[in-house]
Amino acid sequence: MLVKLFKLEVPEIFEDIIQIKSVARDPGSKAKIAVFASDSSIDPVGSCVGIRGNRVKAVTNELNGEKIDIVLWSNDLAQFIVNALAPLAPGEITKILIDEDRHKVEVVVSQENQSIAIGRRGQNVRLASQLTGWNIDIMTEEQESKRRNEEFLTSTELFMEALDVEEVIGQLLSVTGFNSVEQIASSEISTLTRVEGFEEELAVEIKNRAINYVDLKNEKIIKKLEDLGVEQELIDILELSLELILKFAEYGIKTIEDLGEMSVNEFKNLAPNSNITDENIKLLIQTARQHGELKDS
């Protein structure tokens, strides 16, 4: 509906001079739309807004007053995140941290700008997350500093216990950016030798200890999954870590049919840090439901 209305009001969109890259809506309340023009002489945002805002106002009126943020799409993720968080001014963002493994972006702002970034009842950051396809977390400078310190202490203790190393080794791994034993186990020796004081011999030993720890941990999880009666087919379709699959199993999700009965929110609550988008979660659940229907027929 929103895209169709903009095509009617903005000739440049209808003629494909301006492309609508993504849309996020809270129907009846607010929407965000990301636009782009390959011709640098064209202002896609200004064209969609119109003279004195006449074009966007026409769309808003058709949607019974739904507020619309028009932002510039960028293939630079950090820049796109900045744009998507409007009305937060770009200069008010202190830092952007992108975690590709967890498909998550942390945006650091000052205390006074946190409420603007988040929006009323979390609406602004929620729509920005939908628009960009990334989970966006807003935090203040103080919160980020505290969290980083807590993560440092937690990962240091984890490495000391799991790898049977002294505190200084655990600290060096943490400060270099390692946050899990799995990450160490899958790293190249050349990556580990970049840790301060790590010669190749030590790097090989640390990697081998990490591999042994992960293998033993996975063996225990697989045994638990077998004891719980989890279907191999579910493990294959989820494509999540064994640790997360165990979490699903303990919640009662042990078969494809169980997965088909889940809601998107339930899935996200169990796997908040997975890199699976809402659309792919929906597709996964729909596939599971169809599988169950075929099994019953």
UniProtKB/TrEMBL annotation:
Entry keyword set: Cytoplasm, RNA-binding, Transcription, Transcription antitermination, Transcription regulation, Transcription termination
GO cellular component, one term: cytosol
UniProt keyword Cytoplasm, yes or no: yes
UniProt superkingdom: Bacteria
InterPro entries associated with the record: DNA_repair_Rad51/TF_NusA_a-hlx, KH_dom, KH_dom-like_a/b, KH_NusA_2nd, KH_sf_prok-type, TF_NusA_bacterial, TF_NusA_KH_1st, Tscrpt_termin_fac_NusA_C_rpt
Record domain K Homology: where: 101-177
GO biological process, one term: DNA-templated transcription termination
KW ATP-binding (keyword) present: no
One MF annotation (Gene Ontology) recorded for this entry: RNA binding
Identification of the protein by name: Transcription termination factor NusA, C-terminal duplication
Organism from which the protein derives: Rickettsia amblyommatis str. Ac/Pa
Gene name per UniProt: nusA
